[in-house]
Amino acid sequence: MRSLTRSSVVLVVALAAAMVTPTAAQAAATVPPVFPIVSSPAVKVVAPTEPAGKFSPAVDGVLRPTVSATKVTTLPTGKEVKSAPFDMSSATLVASDEFSDTYRDVHGTRRLVQSPSPLNVKSAGRWVPISTALGDAGAGGLQAKLSPLAPRFASRANTESPFQVSNNGFTVSVSLDGAAGSSLSHPTVPFTDLGADQAGYFSVLPNTDLRYQVHPQLVSQSLVINKVPAAGKGVYSWTVTAPGLTLSKTAAGDLSFVNSAGVTEFTMPAPVITDSSSKETQPTLVPYSVARVAGSVWSLTLTPPRGWLTDAAREYPVVIHPDIALAIGTSNAFSLSGAGTAVWGGQIGWDGRTHWVAMQQYDYSPLFGSQLTGASIGIDTVSPNAPWCLGMGGNVYLADGVKYDLGGDDAMSIGMGCSGSTAVSSDPELNYDFAAYVAAQNPNALIKINWINPSTGASLSPIKHIDSTISLDYRPLPSVTGITGTIASNGAVGPLQPTIQATGSDPIGATLNYEYEFSSTPDFSTIAYTTGWVGPDMQTIRYGSGGLLPGTKYYYRVGSVEAGNPLTWNQSTYKMNTNPAWSFTTNTPAPTPPQASAIPGDGTVVSSLTPMFSSPTVTDPAATQPLQYKFR
User: Fold this and answer.
1) Are 315 and 276 in contact (CB under 8 A)?
2) How open is the CA angle 210-213-218, to the nearest 5 degrees?
3) How many CB atoms lie within 10 A of CB 52?
4) Is 481 left (phi over 0), alpha (psi -120 to 50) or beta?
5) Over the stretch 491-508, which tens digit does the pLDDT of each residue have?
6) Which of left, alpha, beta for 504 (phi over 0: left; psi -120 to 50: alpha)?
């Protein structure tokens, strides 16, 4: 599972910082084949302002949750209570799929951890957490077998397929044209994970190295140019082999790898180049071309601007980034258009000035019918120019539509670094909002992540890939487990004044209160009678005026709530329990014989101590059982 701890930010950024060491443009030396550890720069949080613009396609609409239509009576006045935090130390994993994990602790509380990007991969027939660590692949090569892209690196850079990725039955192989036979390098720090996700080939071209870092959804491919290329040089070509796939540019400048059904399997976000200056906070787009050579073999050529490479202010080494990513996750993100443009595979949108937005959505429908007890969100970022990228101020919004204006609730502010994982604690606003959505069973919550660029007028985001991981803690609502009493079911004829008593189950063993509702319509559009909130003891249902009527079919349902109606994030434990068998027809009593027809008559004096009493018979309309007569 992707780490959501702040300490992981320092480790990841520090390692990324070691990948590039700045030197002067004219006095650059070849980078030695080691990865020194350096300190990560502090993140400076800058509060964002609200930009203008809009997302496309426009799917605007109010997404705020509404009160469930099943709750027709007033709940008891409740007070906010603090639920016990989820106990991860005692939790066990109870369910997994590609994008989520579900845990349960000793108290019965569950935690759903979910991301729009993969969290798990299939291994030996079961889902296991993604690992970006590279391991032995035989013949001197390396592979991250538990990564969705399963990237593989050959022992030397001049082999036929030195770098390849695979997913969904497709494989893409990439080789740098003219590469020397440089050996694969995989320096790591003993007893740590530092460097486990990185590999490289040094001096593949004159004054040029090729380096890689594996991320959950993409592989960063970095061509590190240590000195200004000689005149006539500075054009870089790769041979790409992609059986079953067609390569084509998108309107946003990304390279798509499309299968025969028109589905994009992989993407190469529009490549950029960055230098080592702490002042150069913005990457520059690199023009490129792609052409089919023959069959499944393609030629990819990148031509960084010569003027940019030779600029006197340029600090070397400089890095070109032709990354390869999975074309998934963005199905739950939304591209920006309008005032700005969509970049980095269409996942991140720009307002044309300094503001950036990414939107993501989650499937939290497994929580419907439960009570949310906690929520937190983590942001994972990948930057093209760490470690020199400055920190950014960001907001996480609960959006009110797929659009760029920052409507919705400002759930929390975050400080976003340029690479690594930023942990966000369980902010009250996020908890209140998601608790309301879950209670209303509204599946349309959208997360909008907004951050600003510290460089005014910047044309590219300092973040090239962003993922979010949400953690939602929940427990089942109390529920009715059975009904006892004289009340009938399945439409059978029953007493006009039945008794009813619910039995229930509560996840924390609390005493439950119940409300019994009766309606003559199965949709409960009108309520004929309700008991109001009562305790767990047997209840006798009223008949006559204000109660049940004879000879009428009624449907009944039972509301349940913990006694006292304790609230968690302003949401009750209330639940309306229904059952298709819960219906009955009230008995129609037989008419009372007229008093004048009874013997002895009214006021008659009799001499016998054992007089005979009689009455004319009457007909039972229901005819469900023999009639009995009572004289008094």
Assistant:
1) yes
2) 115
3) 14
4) alpha
5) 999 988 899 999 999 988
6) beta
